[in-house]
Every structure is written in structure tokens, then in C-alpha cells.
């Protein structure tokens, strides 16, 4: 059981850096590496306007290559720091550290990563947090390994004890456990007072079994941004309408309904006949800004406008993520935020 003095901070709280891993020919990006690199470069450009980026590279050659690519695109390299560790792929939302804090004390949680329920090999990814911890990357009081399969994209917190998740994902990972059992494990290890479960909502082309970060996200203690669908002829219409009804029925800890912000529905994006999961809900919050995906769709601008309403104190920056959804994820999926004070000084000042 996690020390109850530690708290799971919300993504909008102050951060030290964003953690990513550089795509290579050894990852699933190999067939379209050039396009994907352009998205990574644009993402690093966007983040470094506000804070540092920590980039995991598999070896010296990859680090040197990434450094050259970023430098040639005029990225502020003073805000780019490199780490080295092997990895299977670059989905750090699911393989990176989940950090809890108690003032200036930090607890790094290392849940089991199973390749989204055994769909893909994950032996290196499951060791990533441990390897980074061994390199003293984190200012942590301790690293706590949790014998429970959980991906960071499957959970969303308001920083005040409420967790939002989808039962489809957690049930798929743990078919032999009841909802009460899963609820108790999440509350105990993440120090949450309550969990709001969504039973509806999915995206075609998503192989995470309905991660919450593709569907609905907290934008504050009383605000939720969610992916809507207004096309009655689309296969997503009924499940996303049902999800919207569930969100409308949720109440804050004060007993009030949440302010809901419906993101527009992009036109179908197909890849050799396969529908891709183009969700605007897969955004990243950094210090002073929200970086959100764009897909080259006419709805991109409308999505920015909705996000600005949900985050009136933040700048909204859009990055082309069409290359990412080819591999079934988007911008939030490839990033992990590090709370302010959680990254070792030797890393930030290297």
C-alpha cells in the first residue's frame, strides 16, 4: 500500500520536463520513420517554448542523430536533455514513470507493462522505469514496483483524489478481477478517494482497449474535455453519445455536475482501408500551454477553439499528429510529464 502522504498530481500542475523516447528503425515507426520524425521535431519545438524535454535514446548513435535533427530545425537545445536506455517502442505515456509527490518528496511508481495485454513485445519497455531510476534520473524517495498491469494512458486524475478511467481497458487487462478489486488496487496504489468509471466509448484503430486519454480528460477540478461524435451515420455515434451521457451524470466532490467541453469529430482517416483513431482528446498539458493534435482536418481549428474555452489561461498549440495515428496513438501517448522537482538536477543541468 502506498504511503498515504503522497498525492497523484494533475497534469496541469507545474512540471520540470516532458519525457519522450526517440523513434528509430528498431521501433514500430520504421516504415514511415521520416514522417514520424517530423512530428517528433515539431513536438519538441513546441514543448521547449515552455519547458525542457528529456529524450531517451537507445545508444550514442541515436542520441547524436536526434541532436543533429533537432539542432538543424532550430530547436532550443538548452532545453533538450538526453538519457540512454533500451526500449521496444516510444509510447512513454504507458511505459514511463507515474510520479506521486508529498511536498518536495517523490515516489516513482513502476506498474507492470504487458504490451497492452500481450499484443506486442514489451520486455525492454517493462524495464524502462527501473533503468532510468538506476541512473538517478529522478529525485525520488523510493521506486515502488507494483505487480499490477497498468498504463499511464488508462488513468486520468484531477490531482485532488478523483481518478477517471474506462472499465473496458482495466477489465481487459484483469479479466479475473472484479470491479471492486480493481477499484481497491487503484485507490490504494495511487492514493485516490474515488474512481469515476466510464462503461462506454471507444475508437476504431485504438489497440489500447479504450484508454481514457483518447476519450475524456480533466481540464480542472470541475471541467472535463471529451471526444464527441455528432455524425449519426458513424459507427462511433452511439457509444460516444452514451459516454457523453455518463460524463453528464458524474458529479464533483461538491455534488455539482462537471462543465463539459465537447471536442469535434474529425472526418474518417483511413490507411489502406483501416480506420485510424483521430482523437483530439489526446492532448498534452505543459507549463502555460496545451499542446494538442491536429490531423489536417477541417475540424482542427474548431478543436483549438474548444480547447481554448476549456483552458482559458493556457496557450493552445497544435501539432500535426497524422503520422502518429498510423500506429494507433497520438500526442499524449508518446509523452510523460515530470512534476516540478521530480527530475534530478544533474539531468536538468547537464
TrEMBL record:
Any keyword Hydrolase? yes
Signal peptide start-end = none
InterPro entries reported in the protein's UniProt record: Peptidyl-Arg-deiminase_porph (IPR007466)
User: Keywords of this protein's UniProt record, alphabetized?
Assistant: Hydrolase
Q: One short Pfam family name for this protein?
A: PAD_porph
Q: Which Gene3D superfamilies match?
A: L-arginine/glycine Amidinotransferase, Chain A (3.75.10.10)
Q: What is this protein called?
A: Agmatine deiminase family protein
Source species: Aquilutibacter rugosus
